[in-house]
Fold each of these.
Amino acid sequence: MKHLKPLNAKARRIDADMAAQEEDVVALQQAPRPHVPMGCSLVFSPGWEVDASGGTAGLCQPVERDIYDCYVTCFWPVQMADHVNYSADWASNCAAATKDWRSLDIVFP
Amino acid sequence: MTVLLDHRYRAGEMHRFDASGAEFVYLPAAGALFAFDEAIVAILTLVEQGVVVHSDLVKALSADGMTAADAEGLLREMRMVRLLEAENVVPQASIVDAPPADYPLQALVLNVTNQCNLACTYCYEFGADKISTQTGKPKYMTPETARTAVDFLLDSARDRKAVHVTFFGGETLMNFRLLKDTVEYANARAAETGRRCTYSLTTNATLLTDPIIDFLNDNAVGVTVSIDGGKESQDSRRIYKSGKGSYDVIEPRLKSLIAKHKTRAVTARVTLTAGNTDVVGIYRHLKDEIGFHEIGFAPVTTTDDGHDFGLNGDGMSDVLQGFHDLSEEWMQYALRGQMHGFSNVSETLSELVSGTNKSHPCGAGLGLLGVSPGGDLAPCHRFTDADEHVMGHIDTGIDQEKRTDFLTRGHVGSKYECTSCWARPLCAGGCHHEAFVRYNDTGHANLHYCDWIRTWTDRVLTIYGTIAVHNPEFLDRFADRKGLSS
């Protein structure tokens, strides 16, 4: 953290938790170094990812969490959280998908 | 058409304060304490005026010379600690966790007698607020009962490495023989399983003798003395049944106790009542003239029906002013790296250091239970011998149904008034016993002292911030303060 300074034990735990999230998942082109793990998509485009075999079984996240890109940008009526009628809050805790994708919840219609 | 979404934020739940020119925030949802910089001040200023949009905040920060990436990083930090939260997020209904059914016991308070040689006019065991029903019950605990209680404690503590026994009354030293027997028995029993038992007692000091003092020193028994101050304060309400004051009896005994008891701190516990609110004067006397290591103060427990000892508004303002002055002195000591004996600050500060966030106001019914002279279990020493609050017996174990009811009621999540209070992590609604006396429900929030708790917590936060700026290493001394056992 750059702007907040933890001053007690609980604050230090929050700090450690945030730090642990920084590099626990690394995209292919992302620092510290590019790497290609088995079974992952080649680009971070939530909603359009397939694994190395062309399916969704080998993705790091359940496919239900990978529909974010449909929700944010896509007009095509695929199966995704409906941000017009029913699930307007679905992504309210996810300001930047590449960092906050853990905050996306699963929607059960 | 592509629709890009933006996010709207509001300020999260926080208590801001400043100290020594620096800005701090206490986050009640976690019990976390942070210092923060000017950039965060700017965002909080914007968000405190109303809901703001993510991209506007980024623009505002960029206009102040921050790169877009840094601005995103800053907003992310604020979101992660919940200084900012999404505008349309609603708090979940309070969660009242089911009490743990098998919480290992850590401490027992043995009411070794319900008899007392004093008749302090404000005593909750004695006056109009009495809830105990002692008729027909043993007045003194027998050695057999105490030994069974020790066995019960060691069994229920399971794999804890250390347990604690507090001796309480009545006047504890009216049953010193039992105390001595129990310490010897518990030491032996604990040693059999490679464990340790520590001890403390509360006394009015009238019955202290040299052999007793030697015993307390040899066994490292922590001693808390109930005392109200100098002669005038002490003799106005801490009196014998004849009406005679107790100061002249205890003064030489206290000096002897403090001179000879070197293994544990000797603490004074002062009850503040109408007419006895000179906190600084009492402290000076007990610290400088008598020599106590630590002195703690608490306003008297009372119903609101006009006892002559209850503290009214003026009395409470005097007490708060006294607490403020004495805590200032505490802080000056801390800045010089010295410990000061005003334990109300030390206690609150050590809870802030660890970031305590309580589900219950204290350990009553969880790791701690009270035992009546007859062996009945109660949530704590203040409930012993009160039929309505019996929670099992040392022979038969804990009455889980009663315990669950007590802990569910007492959970901070079930106290509606506490849900919006920033001081709830430390207070959790306050004393179960005081709530029962005042509101006839152990699970009622103690609303009559909310302002007091918030004012006091804010005061100690300010002290915390000041020390964090000027002498941060001093705070490390409080990290293990409550580390009773593993």
Amino acid sequence: MGGLNTALLIGVGGLDAAQGALDATSNNIANVNTPGYTREEAQLSELPETESAGQITGGGVSLEGLQSIRDELLNVQIQQQTSLQSAADTESASLQQAQTYFTSTGTDIASALSSFSSSLAALSANSTSSSAQQGVLAAGQNLASAFNTAAGGLTGVQTAANQQIPDTVSQINSLTQQIAQLNGQLAQVPAGEGGGTVQDQLDQAVKQLAALTNISVTQTNNGETITTGSGTPLVEGDQSYNLQTSTGTGGQLEVLDANGNNITSAITGGTLGGALNIANQVIPGLMTQLNTLASQFATAFNSAQAGGTDSNGNAGGAFFTGTANLSNAAANMSVGLISAAQIAISSSTGGGNGNVANLSAALTSTLPSGESAADGYAGIVFNVGTVASNASTQSTAIGDNLTQLTTQQGAVSAVNIDEETANLMRYQTAYEAAARIVSTVQVLDNAALNMGSSTSF
Amino acid sequence: MRIDPNIVPEMLANLQQSQVSLDTALQQVSTGLSVNEPSDNPTNAAAMVENTIQTGDLDVYTQNVSTALSTVQTASSVLSSLVTSLTSAVSAGTEGANGTNSSTDLASLANEVQGILTSAVTAANTSVSGTYLFGGSGTTTPYTADASSSTGYTYNGNDDTNSVAVGDQTSVQVNLPGSQIFSSSSNNVLGALSSLVTALQGGNSSDIQTATASVDSALNYVSQQQVFYGNAETQLNSQETFLEQDKVTLSTQANSLIGVNESTAATDLSQAETDNSAALAAVAKVLPNNLLNYLAPPA
Amino acid sequence: MTCAGAPDRNGNAAEYLQLLRSLAGEMERAMRAIAHNALPDLEESVATQQMMSARLLVLADELSAPLESSPAEFSPAASPIKIDDDMMQQVRVAGDALQTLNRRYAALLQHSSRSVTLMASLFNSFQGKFKEASGPRLKHQTWSCQM
């Protein structure tokens, strides 16, 4: 397989980038913004306890307090994982669609390449037969058509993702406005009263928001501060800030904050992150590979044509046209010959069918990309399959993780710190052992290459 | 009944997972393929691209070898008969040159050689399935009578040779043009026979001897040309064997890449159906009717 | 084993195949256990997986050794027989399925162990006690813990 196109690598790494974001935020669960409270105190010092009216203050947090913190920690994780899940689902859905254009169906590029190759081999046995010549012309048209379809399919997926982007931004803005309003309402609630339903509505809205983009939620005295990207404010207390979309210089959609700053690359989660990755990274990467293949193959084949003479006695003209512009070579590829008699069968030095072998060779020769046409296409199939598979794997795995977190959240039992800590240690141990098994299984994959060969088994 | 909110996400997750497994198992059994989309196994799907192309080509190559063999074998046998006829012509010429023949005898010998010339032209005009074996790439009768020609015949074909693809980047030349075999400037078979006829009719022993020597030379020449077809036949036969082996290799490879073991697929399907039924039953127990309606496909 | 030291490749291949499938089953079980927070179930499954993968490594080693390395002094009756194609095909398919599952397993472990680490850090921070916020909304603590 040839090297992955760099843009595609970025696309594949998009999901990993989201993981990186998770790592970064996990180091700082929430900002502290309470008077008299410092982080150092929280972690390192032991404070004297005072007890009054049965309530411990100024010292250690009560078990109920820890329970609520634990629940909030779970909330934060659920938010983050919801963002990731949503991004993975969005990408997975797009890529499932995209890969249908690279599945063996009889009209895909692989089948078309195969028919084209076969038609040329048949032509070599019956070079003057007009039906054999027509067979090559028709197979060439099918091949161009297959490239058109694949390009159209990818463009369609990109268009759909591009439609999702402004739609999602719209939803985000609507939610942030709601949240700001709810924050305002909550601030009016007198001290001591729970403000239950408003709080629930707020939690629900935040959860929905987390599915749309990556967010970071901080509790402040004025309510929740919610940011996205690398700190772009969405909600501060009862104030919300809208996001906008615009079209960048390359024709790609961008997300801007309320001040018009481009925050596209910092959106890594949620439906928005997923759609951006698909539209701006993954699909363009695949399109580039497809266009390069179409362009280079057409050039190589036309060159073999030019080196021969057709049945009318003329030097071979361009078999394929429409591939001069790399940005849409695959979409525009078509057959330039008007009749099958224009196929350059003879070598330029005389009659016979000497040039047919050269035409066939264009399918197996190495293109400027470093691979043959078949291998170049195989590489695209591999890339599409890999990104689609990764998105699906992540989606399922994150789903399992979310189930785990949601289950923990609902657990009613009071937290026994020692027991829970011990359990966590046991989980760590189990995960470490499991990780070693994962590595072992990967080693088995390498060993499998040597099995069933003619020298073993 | 109060729903435990914790169970629902898990059960729905299990249900969805079992549904996916069921769909996969069904697809595998019905298609016989374990790789239906690139994401099923990207490596194998990619490797199948080359396999698909090679398998398609292989069928054509096999066909080409078969057709080419028939052509080449026919040509070889035609030339073989021709050599035999030329041997008779040489005998006739030798006899005619011995000086003991009457004019009737000479006339008779001349007729015999004329007959051989006619059959040589017929041989040169052999066609198989509408294609002339010895006309180059020409589509009209290679040799026609031409009184203005010194040999009495004109070559209407061309010098083209054709190569047939019988393997990847492997071609076999399958013809020699008539102009090389029958009417080459160094050894014109038709011309030699024609002059022998003339010489026998003329009766001059020395002329007959000379003409006979030309025919003898032509005979050797044709034997050499036949070697080309013999070699081509050998090449084609060994290629035929190779293609048969290659077909098995490609078929085995395809199966190992994307094929599915039938008994395994059937077992997997059975297991997936059981799991799915169990998951559905579990959900049905817990969820009230309105949520079940939510799960059912829209009407 | 047909004779001392002679590898019974047919038997090994069959065992290998069975283990591949069983390990896949155990991985599914482990993933379910994680999702359900069933710790004992997870630990049991992982222990089983450890045994299975150890045995798989040993078998893989034997099965990928070239035939030529078999000493000539064994009698023809004991020489390694070629494993039939059907068996090889099943091994390949089972191996591929396991690899796919392994990727999902790896992703889930990555996410879940992060969750566990976060929670563990929270409880460790609790050992150094920290102050509650006072104010109208007691429920909304602000806190941080260093990882």
